[in-house]
Amino acid sequence: NKAYEFNGSSDFMVIPPLLKADSLRSLTISLWVKATNISRGTVIAFRLPGTMLCSSYMGFDNSGNGFNIHHQMIHNFSANSCTSSMIKDTIANPQNTWVHMVLVQQYYTQYSVGQYKYLQYINGRQLLGSNTPLRTDAQKTSFASGGTIGANNNSGNYQFNFTMFKGSIDDIRIYERALTEDEIKKLYEIKE
Fold first, then answer.
1. d(CA 159, CA 139)
2. Which residues constitute the domain of residue 55?
3. What is the pLDDT of residue 157?
4. Which of 53, 83, 106, 187 is the most exposed place for a label (fewest CB within 10 A)?
5. Domain total in the chain
């Protein structure tokens, strides 16, 4: 297989609506990324069900003090606004190097309250931001409205979306369960 190339200005791929992937409580997104230029770039975005304009996404960021990997999740939304939180970790410069990115979303019940926990991994290693507080109000991840690879969701609502990605993306996998840390390490070692 050959990696997909993105020019950072107009290239992106559309994830079609996947009705069977609506309201996923636990999931894992795994992909290999080689960024050639990072300012702020969305690697993969998934829209909320319905006509809501904001999206949850994974990406890179080079604003502030160094390079970051991040995941934004939407908590509440209405027709005209979104409330979100971001898991963000500082990483070594990922430019011009293949990097294995993984996001795990876990759902469980504690004290009769459903909660989500988000774990980020890079090159088989869990990142510190994964220890962020649990969210009880995050929206379920859904691909029922589709999404994009290599770009924001093109909704026009750029307050909640990063810019186009420049570089290569390969071996995109979406699992409908939370992979274990050992399984994630094996995915990294197989491809490496």
1. 18
2. 4-191
3. 47
4. 83
5. 1
CATH of residue 69's domain is 2.60.120.200
33-37, 58-62, 162-166, 168-172 — most confident range: 168-172
d(CA 184, CA 180): 6
CA distance 124 to 99: 10
Terminal Cα-to-Cα distance of the chain (whole angstroms): 15
Q: How many residues does the chain have?
A: 192
pTM over 0.85: no
